[in-house]
Amino acid sequence: MSSVVKKTMGTGAPGTDSSSQATAERIPAAKRRELILEAATGVFAERGYAGSTTDQVAKAAGISQPYVVRMFGTKETLFLEALDRAHGKLMRAFRDVIAAYDAGELAEELHHLDPAAGSGRPEQLKQLMAIAYADLVEDRGILMMLMQAFVAGHEPAIGARAREGFLDIYRLVRDEAGLSPETSRDFLAQGMLMNTLIGIRLPEIYEQDETAEELLECTLRSKLPMVLKASKAQRRAG
Amino acid sequence: MSSVVKKTMGTGAPGTDSSSQATAERIPAAKRRELILEAATGVFAERGYAGSTTDQVAKAAGISQPYVVRMFGTKETLFLEALDRAHGKLMRAFRDVIAAYDAGELAEELHHLDPAAGSGRPEQLKQLMAIAYADLVEDRGILMMLMQAFVAGHEPAIGARAREGFLDIYRLVRDEAGLSPETSRDFLAQGMLMNTLIGIRLPEIYEQDETAEELLECTLRSKLPMVLKASKAQRRAG
DNA sequence: GGATGTTGTAATCGAATGATTACTTAAAGT
DNA sequence: ACTTTAAGTAATCATTCGATTACAACATCC
What tens digit of pLDDT does each residue of B150-206 get? Predict the structure, then answer.
């Protein structure tokens, strides 16, 4: 039955033609939250904090912009939560490697490491964590999300979390993996270089530039094919 | 004499009270250009491309916003010119070190280098260039300007220049300083780590956090006092 | 089957921002 | 002197964007 439309509207008619509403699928708030955070991570990673809009995040998450804002209050809060999520994923990835190593579950992977780098626990863990780090490039945006936070230090709230988060990583590498301060520094430095190469999208010109090719091979080693594949996939999607 | 005011105005009266005009000092366009670029470098370095406004640049340069826009056309062009300027300064700084070294003008500085790192030309140049790099932290914003370009890769024009610029630096280090690809990579990596530590403003919490202290000392070595001083000065100014 | 809470949107608002227009005013030629 | 050019600003415009308000529709419980 074409029943009575509850027309309780106050001022403006919601309009259109009453047929298409395109309401997104109903999903429990907790799950929707995670979907938004995942979408936000991709958007913020690509365009930075100031360069992203809540509408871009909403579109990426397949919902409306007001819903994003209502769920997180402000764009800044959304960024901070996406940042925490990315930070947590990185910490988890490193800790998983350490735990697996100490449990002796990585016998296979150990054969593929560079023997010249040493065979102690810190030296091997350093190489294994570097691999885990490169693997995160595939997981859309985690590393660039962190990178974007690092250059948004002028925003007080973001800067504070970025500092804390970076020191967290440093302490993890130093205390839990057992690297010396100098080795920890070198490890982080390699990570920042990788972030930069990803940030300037160097993989996109890998085939066209000999220098880019050399630098990427030298930096990513065995993980280069995977990164190149991820780069191409992202270009198709973007 | 309170002569006749040439009131040729078309529509709206320019208004105010006819007394305060506050017109900036008249300066030749070429000189003004450089002043704007210097101001823009500071603003972009601090807030990034998307996070900066042409008005902030104008205020920093002591002129009006329309003048900034008219002189550079668009905000993007302004950013690109500031980027080129920063890139040029970095290249110049490295080349000056190499030239001075090859001319034998750095006998004094060589005594302060780490002997354990080796005494060949590449090894010594690597250390000298690292010092020159750290010195640029003082020169307000050069390094962060570059860093901001590195994370703005999604802007097509900026991304292209960032890629070219980064490869320029790599080639300079490899071909002109004579570092191997692996050593060049490590050199760049240390630079990116320094950028990151500056970006998250770690020097600001140097006194309050033991971890921050250790990481900064380990990364900046002899240049730490200078960076700390620059950090404090910037905080007073900002 | 009506009340209630949850999930979602359309419409809209105010502030910010890049850009444009129309001027002014100080120098520099002539 | 008086025209011309160069250096600079005030006013304003069209968008964009984060946030708010007012609803709508579905689910669940009594």
Answer: 999 999 999 999 999 999 999 999 999 999 999 999 999 999 999 999 999 999 999
Cβ of residue A235 closer than 8 Å to a chain B Cβ: no
Instruction: In whole angstroms, give the CA distance from residue A237 to residue A227.
Output: 15
Find chain B residues with C-beta within 8 A of A150's C-beta: 196, 199-200
The residues near A30 (Cβ < 8 Å, ≥ 6 apart) are none
φ, ψ for residue A217 (rounded to 5)?
-65, -40
User: Can you tell me the distance from the alpha carbon of B159 to that of B12, in angstroms, rounded to the nearest whole number?
Assistant: 43
b/e map B27-52, b = 16+ CB within 10 Å: eeeeebeeebbebbbbbbbbbbbbbb
A9 to chain B, minimum CA–CA distance in Å?
39
Question: A66 CA to chain B: closest CA distance, Å?
Answer: 22
Which of the four pLDDT bands, split at 50, 70 and 90, describes residue B22? low
Residues B89, B142 contacting (CB under 8 angstroms): yes
A47 touches B: beta carbon within 8 Å:
yes
Contact B185, A194 (CB under 8 A): no
Which of B181, B199, B211 is opposite residue A167, by nearest beta carbon? B211
The DSSP code sequence of B194-212 is HHHHHHTTGGGGTTT-HHH
SS3 state at B46:
helix
What SS3 string covers A208-225? CCHHHHHHHHHHHHHHHH
CB pairs under 8 A between A and B: 126
The bases of strand D with some atom under 7 A from any protein CB are 6-12, 16-27
Q: Does the beta carbon of A86 lie under 8 angstroms from any beta carbon of chain B?
A: no
By C1' distance from the Cα of B54, the closest nucleotide is: C18
A61-106 pLDDT, tens digit each: 999 999 999 999 999 999 999 999 999 999 999 999 999 999 999 9
Segment holding B190, helix H or strand E: helix B181-199
Sign of the CA dihedral running B29, B35, B40, B45: positive
Residue of chain B whose Cα is closest to the Cα of A160 = B200
Q: Is B135 helix (H, G, I), strand (E, B) or coil?
A: helix
